[in-house]
Design goal:
By secondary structure, this protein is an alpha+beta fold. It has two domains: about 15-130, no CATH class; about 130-280, 3-Layer(aba) Sandwich (Aminopeptidase). The protein is built from seven helices and eleven strands. It has an eight-stranded mixed sheet, sandwiched between helices. A three-stranded antiparallel sheet has the order 1-2-3, sandwiched between helices. The chain is globular. The mean pLDDT is about 95.
Length: about 280
């Protein structure tokens, strides 16, 4: 018997609301990178820099675009050609060619996308911004009968969680990840099946009550086609959120579907998330 999920709401939001959410994500990434020990961060070229209200992040040794990108450009405040040039120049000085700049419907001014093209950038991929506001109706997103144990990561499981994420992402995070356990605002979760960790996801709750979800591994739809472990974690996060100060939860679907017809939309829709807009990454390809 097939199970019908609620259709995910795609009502757009205004510029100010989008700016609030993108700024919350920027602050989460800024704090994430700030948690890295300074000596190690310098060694691997990890850091951040604010350009007005836009955050530029960089992690040179990874060669991964997602870890060297701009967050909020043209949304948290109107972009300028000089501002775009300054961000691109930062990565160039650091020897980073694998980097990303975002655009979305709320970017200003109207010439913003033209400026990116003039600088040799082209659309690379997209993400769907998804948002859950406090009080949204939810149903259980795990429908197969599989049994997952979802738990918060604590000092006793820090190494196991850290090693799992490093293995999934094929990255060496050195002494960084353990610094997030018990760091104010951060909450890390894992899902176990038959005692083994099969998925992880983190949440950062800002002082404004906006929680950003990320650090998910394996990334559903990209690294794995098994969506249910992440669905189980997200259900636990939604349940825990109010007690941790989260009034709004933001995240993204990294493998978007124009028809909103992949399992990610099903389980996030079941948990009360909406999809108000799509973000496009631009890169030199």
């Amino acid at each position: 018997m097939s199970i019908e999920y609620e259709t995910m709401d795609t009502t757009p939001v205004d510029d100010a609301t989008s700016a609030t959410w993108e700024a919350a994500e920027a602050r989460a990434w800024a704090d994430l990178y700030a948690a890295a020990p300074a000596d190690w961060a310098a060694e691997v070229g990890l850091g951040t820099r604010w350009f007005g209200e836009t955050l530029a992040i960089h992690w040179a040794v990874t060669g991964r675009r997602y870890f060297s990108r701009a967050i909020g450009l043209g949304v948290t405040a109107p972009a300028s050609e000089a501002g775009v040039n300054d961000i691109l120049a930062l990565w160039e000085r650091l020897g980073i060619s694998m980097c990303l700049v975002q655009s979305m419907p709320h970017c200003a001014p109207a010439a913003y996308a033209d400026w990116l093209r003039e600088r040799g950038l082209e659309p690379f991929d997209q993400q769907d911004r998804i948002v859950r506001v406090e009080g949204a109706a939810t149903t259980d997103p795990v429908r197969s009968g599989r049994e997952f144990t979802v738990e918060r990561v604590g000092p006793e499981t820090t190494d196991e969680w850290s090693q799992f994420l490093q293995r999934v992402y094929r990255l060496d995070t050195g002494p960084w990840l353990p610094q997030l356990i018990d760091r104010p605002g951060w909450h890390q979760y894992v899902a176990r099946e038959r005692g083994e960790i099969v998925a992880a996801r983190g949440m950062h709750v800002g002082r404004d009550g906006i929680a950003w979800l990320g650090m998910d591994g394996p990334v559903p739809g990209i690294m794995t086609q098994d969506f249910e472990p992440d669905a189980a974690i997200c259900a636990r996060i939604v349940a825990d959120g109010p007690g941790l100060g989260a009034r709004t939860i933001i995240s993204d679907i990294e493998q978007p579907s124009p028809g909103l017809d992949t399992p990610s939309y099903s389980y996030f829709g079941a948990l009360g998330f909406s999809r108000p807009y799509t973000r496009t990454h631009w890169a030199r390809v």
